[in-house]
Amino acid sequence: MKSVLLVSTLAAVLGLSACSQQDSAVEAQRDVDQARQQAAEDVAEARQDAAQTSAEAQQKLDAAREAARADVAEADAKANEKINAATDEAMSTADEANQDVAEVRADTIHAQAKADYDLAVAKADADLKIALEKCESMASGQVVVCKDQANATHEIAKANAKRALDDAQAVARDTKR
To answer: 10 Å Cβ neighbour count for 145?
Structure first.
């Protein structure tokens, strides 16, 4: 029985639909036009949303690039600071080392000059003793002149040694600078 009822209902619906087909064609066209208009509005809205999303993405990209540039600039500045500090430290260390070398060189020059002076004075003293001994073997009239000559030679040798010592000490002072 249910099948009969179902078949009757279907027949009635089909009968009514055949009567309203003409109304349905106008309505269908109106529905299509509304659908087209709605689709155009949806597409326009989707384009607007896509453009806004694209603009936001571009802004984020630009901000990220700017942040990256700032990070690179900061890292570059820090690296330059470290390079400059290391360079300054290296130059300071080199200056200290050069100063140490200059002091040792000056001390060496001074020590060598003092040794040369002591040697020159010792040689002058030895030469004086030898000259005085030779003077003693001379005739009595020549002894005084010989001793004066020996003493003068001795004083000149000591003065030359002192001048050489003073010159070397000046060089040593200049070397420290």
So the answer is: 11
